[in-house]
Specification:
Helices cover 42% and strands 16% of the residues. By secondary structure, the chain is α+β, with helices and mostly antiparallel strands. Strands 1, 2, 3, 4, 5, 6, 7, 8 and 11 form a 9-stranded mixed β-sheet that branches. A hairpin with a 6-residue loop joins strand 14 and strand 15. The radius of gyration is 31 Å and the shape is globular. This is Presequence protease. InterPro entries: Metalloenz_LuxS/M16 (IPR011249), Pept_M16_N (IPR011765), Peptidase_M16_C (IPR007863), Peptidase_M16C_assoc (IPR013578), PreP_C (IPR055130). Its EC number is 3.4.24.-. Keywords: Hydrolase, Membrane, Protease, Transmembrane, Transmembrane helix.
Length: 1222
């Protein structure tokens, strides 16, 4: 949620929320706040070393440096050593024993003991030497005694080799609550950050983030969404933190690296993370108080359900909720003329969720597949059912399930963090006592296989305008298990899922994609996040109703064929290696989050959390079973759980052009019916409560309430930015290619990125670059077909992929400056990125060579399938992530670089992708020739336009450099007869795509104000303008004010008061453009635009009222801290750290500029707030971009007379922008 603009061209890395064995499907969890697309982070180890044999529990808040001592120096050899709060070192204890034993009668014994001690010291020194990568003996596990606590029984404590960590399961004596503690090995070496060229001063500390979480098993008995609404509501104030929204306050001003909450079909999870101990303890306390003492279920919290869940709002009410004239006279309007509408944050969120056909097919399938247990209900809430939830049901659900006995708690950190968390939780839980009924009542029962024949259902979904009768969808979902599954079989299912669907060349995926029946596959395969696993597969974009039956037959026939033929040894070896590599590579700073969420996949059902996350034994057993039976294991699984299993659902969704209007009418009828049954008193009570809610939301909180929120100070912030190790060598091995190195601890894994300039590609051909990338990622070679080549990659590497990077760079001489860029200095590069273990580095470079020079571009079916799937995915994203398209569309009007981004990845790409598909079918021979010419131009480009980026341990880098030299000098082709001209320094000259792009920009946008019509029940509204001119200095304080607006006015007014699921302020110093945009917004677009208009004035009002400067600038300090928290983020994995350092290098950003930016953030004053607000009020070239339904645009016009140029999707097979004035 932090308002942080990443360096252009880089992908923002957000907090990971993945199960260890399988990434959890988004349909299975709903977030308290929307998280942008996430990527699993890899483990990075601690950079400091401690010796921890004993922990001082009385000083658990102290720093590690205070709790532990490695001091071995002593001035008095005669002093007798004794144990104090410091733990003596091995050398100290050896010396003490010598003093005691050196007596004449005991000399022989002493000599023997000294000899043993000497040998022990030598052995410890040798085996603890981390410089030897082949050392197979490990250090003693940390915390060998473990952390004990008087209020808990220790159920199990083991050192887990897979994670280099101690895992301890406790049981709270008073309540029976279970508490899992994860303590990583803190004795591992950190990365070498010294002596590296171009390395900065902040230092890269990959120490994992501290993580805390609490989960409750929450079993729904209806689709009112009460678990989901409670997840939102408990974070709206509590006994100790009575603010209306402590959660929002933490977003404003903490150093959190993760702050959210999730609702699953059977559990509600509240996790937090931070790298700062003070902040971490604050977050922990706020969440504990929130879940155990929420105001939402007390009388004083009457308003929370109405704000977060659902309420009646008066249509056309005044801003203060009254229904009279502008003076607020509620008596001027007859009650008979008052009409209601539904509002509420969760209600809006779920309207958006139900507008997504893929999400809808998942939800309906689950309901049909589980007719006899609680999974038949939607824990997130059905918008048609949410308004039936009463306050009594809301409070009753909380009291039933939010009890310590029904909770599972987790902490990841060092021993002092564990003890603190145990103590803090004990203080909250002990007074609540033991309540076995809460745990018993929440138990989830197994759904038995009761279907005598498969279930087939048809349901409508809201189709895009003009889609007609095409666009059918079919998904088949199987129930896999009816009892607990062994760890080996769980892993076997993950492998089978990979075999069936893991790659485009996998047999089930390939059969569906090659059929040409639909646009792309859906379903996602295996889902093992709940008590019972499911497997789903289908397609969307089927052209005819008849194709539904054909597709179902194709799926079953493919499974029958696989049952008969099985999988090859290469298929199995590739999938096994890919999964094993993923397991061993691990996560980054949020590894603890992965452990927590992964453990819950079994822990939530009273099974062992340890068994849910360990994998070595299961992996060995699976390997042994495969060695014994080969493919037969997987054939038997297909036969028993898929082919012969009648407990499956075949769900067809068919397009309905009228459904959106029918749903709106049904909602109006539902409200009208409810109104007709109300007495005058009930009617008036709703109006009065609406007024009270508006008054409460508008009321300033008292200084005492504000002061109750936990806070940090500027002194808690590191004054220097995070820097990553980097060494740059031009003309490496006289190849002409630049080498970039990053020495970090990578557990013996090499990360290699090879970049090639693509600026020589003509501008009118750049739309084909995605086609080239798709073939590099999916096609075969001259001697291997696509399946064989992708299996080879899977067997020898951890994954290889091609991608395109088009990024702004600073003009030459601007390294230390922070100015608005001209947008004409651009790098355009094709990157091949891969990873492997150190012994497979030669194989990795062999794969690179084959991908670049030997991939068979004459692969029409492969490319067509890839392009269709990509286009289908973009269209789906337009409906469920419209805010991203709106913001990209808007920004594309302000700079050439932004325009290129919109053209290649925004709404415009729907047109270009459709045009490329047409070209593929129209003249394939000519199309292949164009791609081949493009490839040759790229690989024959001048060497000074290429770069190789290596990340890993020192010995890994040494090995990689040797192989890289051979690859660059001897394997890359050189056209001596027609050498490529030198690649220009694009920091000094304009990129060749700029001039034609500038011309195209002139006619690219039908107007400054545009709408994009899609079938949806919500809107995504964006407005923005230029705040800074090109070349103008931009202070880091601008980020602070934008963050202040996102977590203040946008959150309070647009989210809380008006029901949008998300509302954001965004500013980029790269283009000088500021934007406001909303996510899943229930309001008509003109209403939201009107609210945007008040944002800048709200800042000036806060200045005028001294809200910013009160209590020694407390509000400004809070905004500064929150901005820094977003800037620093979570610890990056080795791969991500190396990539981030490379992007910074390519961008031309110096350590000086990063330090300057940070200094300006830290020194933000009230004058900076005034300046930013004035710039927003007077931003230039103001424009609007909105994604919404046609009915929303029509209503907007009828209300305001404002006309937008509305772009409409023509049909499912082809995108045509139809601009017309409404």
């Amino acid at each position: 949620m932090a308002d942080f603009e990443p360096i252009p061209g880089s992908s923002p890395l957000n907090a990971a929320t993945t199960d260890k064995k399988k990434k959890a499907k988004k349909k299975k969890q709903l977030n308290h706040i929307d998280e942008e697309d996430v990527e699993t982070l890899s483990l990075a180890s601690s950079s400091h070393q401690i010796s921890a044999l004993e922990v001082d529990h009385d000083n658990s808040d102290s720093d590690d440096s205070d709790d532990y001592s490695n001091d071995t120096n002593d001035d008095d050899d005669d002093e007798e050593y004794e144990l104090t709060d410091h733990t003596p070192s091995l050398q100290q204890r050896s010396f003490f024993l010598c003093c005691r034993l050196w007596r004449p009668k005991e000399r022989l014994r002493c000599i023997i003991l000294l000899t043993l001690i000497f040998l022990t010291i030598c052995a410890v020194y040798y085996f603890n030497d981390g410089t030897n990568p082949n050392n197979s003996l490990r250090r003693p596990p940390p915390g060998a005694v473990g952390v004990g606590h008087a209020s808990y029984d220790t159920i199990e404590s083991t050192f887990i080799e897979e994670y280099d960590a101690r895992l301890t399961l406790y049981k709270h004596r008073s309540t029976g609550a279970e508490f899992l503690a994860y303590v990583p090995d803190s004795t591992r070496k950190g990365p070498n950050t010294s002596g590296n060229n171009n390395s900065g001063g902040g230092g890269y500390d990959p120490k994992p983030d501290k993580v805390f979480g609490i989960a409750f098993r929450t079993k729904p008995s209806s689709s009112t969404g009460v678990p989901h609404i409670l997840e939102h509501s408990v974070l709206c104030g509590s006994r100790k933190y009575p603010s209306r929204d402590p959660f929002a306050y933490l977003l404003k001003g903490s150093l959190q690296t993760f702050l959210n909450a999730f609702t699953y079909p059977d559990r509600t999870v509240y996790p937090v993370a931070s790298r700062n101990q003070v902040d971490f303890y604050n977050l922990m306390d706020v969440y504990l108080d929130a879940v155990f003492h929420p105001r939402a279920v007390e009388e004083e919290g009457w308003w929370v359900l109405r704000q977060e869940g659902w309420r009646y709002d008066v249509v056309g009410a005044n801003e203060d909720g009254t229904v009279g004239d502008d003076e607020g006279d509620g008596g001027d309007r007859d009650l008979a003329d008052v009409n209601f509408e539904y509002k509420g944050v969760v209600f809006s969120e779920m309207k958006g969720a139900y507008s997504d056909p893929e999400g809808l097919i998942d939800r309906i399938s689950q309901t049909l597949l589980f007719p006899d247990n609680s999974y038949r209900f939607d824990s997130g809430g059905d918008p048609a059912v949410i308004p039936t939830l009463t306050r009594e049901e809301f409070v009753s659900f909380y009291k039933k399930y939010y009890h310590p006995t029904n909770s599972r708690l987790f902490v990841a950190g060092d021993e002092s963090d564990v003890y603190h968390a145990l103590s803090q939780a004990d203080r909250y839980m002990s007074p609540m006592g033991y309540n076995p009924e809460s745990r018993k009542d929440s138990a989830i029962v197994y759904q038995k296989r009761t279907f005598h024949k498969p279930v087939f259902e048809r349901r409508p979904y809201a189709a895009a305008p003009g889609e007609g009768d095409s666009g059918f969808m079919l998904c088949i979902t199987w129930l896999l298990n009816t009892q607990p599954t062994t760890s080996m079989m769980q892993l076997a299912w993950i492998v089978l899922d990979s075999l069936l669907l893991g790659k485009p060349s996998s047999p089930l995926t390939k059969a569906l994609e090659d059929s040409n029946l639909g646009e792309s596959t859906i379903g996602g395969g295996l889902d093992d996040t709940l008590l019972q696993s499911t497997f789903s597969i289908g397609m969307k974009g089927l052209k005819k109703r008849e194709d539904v039956n054909v597709l179902e037959g194709l799926i079953m026939n493919t499974l029958h064929k696989l049952d008969s033929d099985g999988f090859s040894e290469d298929d199995i070896a590739s999938s096994m290696n890919t999964i094993e590599f993923s397991l061993r590579e691990g996560g980054g700073g949020l590894r603890g989050m992965e452990i927590f969420l992964g453990a819950l996949s079994q822990w939530n059902y009273d099974q062992s959390p340890r068994e849910a996350i360990i994998y070595e034994d299961a992996l060995k057993m699976l390997k042994d079973e495969i060695a014994r039976t080969g493919s037969n294991l997987f054939q038997q699984m297909i036969r028993d759980t898929l082919i012969s299993n009648n407990h499956r659902v075949s769900l067809e969704l068919y397009p309905s052009a009228n459904l959106e209007e029918e749903q709106l009418q049904d909602q109006k009828i539902q409200i009208s019916t409810a109104q007709s049954r109300m007495s005058d008193g009930e009617y008036q009570n709703i109006i009065d409560e609406g007024i009270k809610l508006k008054q409460l939301q508008a009321m300033d909180e008292t200084p005492e309430v504000i002061a109750s929120n936990p806070s940090l100070s500027i002194s808690d912030i590191d004054s220097t930015p995070v820097e990553y190790p980097i060494h740059v060598e031009d003309n490496f091995a006289k190849s002409g290619i630049q080498l970039v190195l990053h020495e970090v601890e990578s557990d013996g894994i090499a990360y290699v990125d090879f970049g090639l300039d693509v600026s020589m590609v003509p501008y009118d051909e750049i739309v084909l670059l995605n086609s080239l990338v798709a073939l590099l990622n999916e096609a075969g070679t001259s001697d291997m077909n696509d399946a064989e080549f992708r299996n080879y990659i899977g067997k020898v590497t951890g994954g290889v992929s091609a991608n395109l990077q088009v990024m702004s760079v600073k003009p030459a001489g601007w390294d230390d400056e922070i100015k608005v860029l001209p947008g004409v200095n651009i790098l355009s590069m094709l990157f091949i990125r891969g990873k492997c273990t150190a012994d497979k580095i030669p194989d990795l470079f062999d794969v690179f060579e084959k991908i670049l020079m030997d991939v068979n571009l004459d692969s029409k079916d492969i490319l067509r399938n890839a392009l269709k799937s990509d286009l289908s995915g973009r269209k789906s994203s337009l409906t469920n992530r419209g805010h991203s398209f709106a913001d990209t569309r808007l920004r594309g009007r302000y700079s050439v670089r932004n325009f290129l981004g919109e053209k290649m990845h925004g709404y415009s790409s729907l047109d270009s992708s459709a045009a490329v598909l047409e070209a593929v079918d129209a003249d394939w021979a000519q199309f292949v020739l164009r791609l081949e010419n493009m490839r040759q131009a790229i690989i024959n480009g001048n060497r000074n336009g290429m770069i190789i980026n290596l990340t890993g341990d020192r010995y890994v880098l040494d090995a990689a450099m040797e192989i890289a030299e051979d690859f660059l000098v001897n394997k890359l082709p050189v056209d001596l007869g027609n050498p490529a001209p030198p690649t220009p320094d694009f920091r000094s000259v304009e990129h060749p795509w700029v001039a034609p792009a500038r011309e195209e920009m002139k006619g690219a946008f039908s107007s400054q104000d545009e709408g994009i019509a899609v079938p949806t029940q919500v809107a995504y509204v964006a407005e923005g303008g230029r705040m800074y001119d090109v070349g103008e200095d931009v202070s880091g304080s601008a980020s602070v004010v934008s963050h202040y607006l996102s977590t203040g006015y946008m959150w309070d007014v647009i989210r809380a008061k008006n029901g949008a699921y998300g509302a954001y302020s965004k500013f980029s110093s790269v283009d000088g453009v500021g934007t406001f945009f909303t996510y899943r917004d229930p309001n008509t677009p003109d209403t939201t635009l009107g609210l945007f208009n008040g944002a800048a004035q709200s800042v000036l009002d806060d200045v005028e009222s001294s809200a910013l400067t009160r209590d020694n600038n407390a509000a400004i300090t809070t905004a500064i801290i929150g901005t820094i928290g977003g800037l620093d983020g979570s610890a990056l994995s080795p791969r991500a750290a190396g990539w981030e350092a490379l992007i910074r290098h390519l961008y031309g950003e110096s350590t000086i500029s990063r330090q300057r930016h940070r200094n300006e953030i830290l020194k933000t004053t009230v004058d900076d707030f005034i300046d930013y607000a004035q710039r927003v009020k007077s931003w230039r070239d103001q424009s609007i971009a909105i994604v919404a339904s046609l009915s929303a645009f029509n209503e907007m016009k009828s209300r305001t007379g404002q006309e937008l140029s509305v772009l409409v999707q023509a049909n499912a097979d082809q995108e045509e922008d139809q601009s017309g004035e409404l």
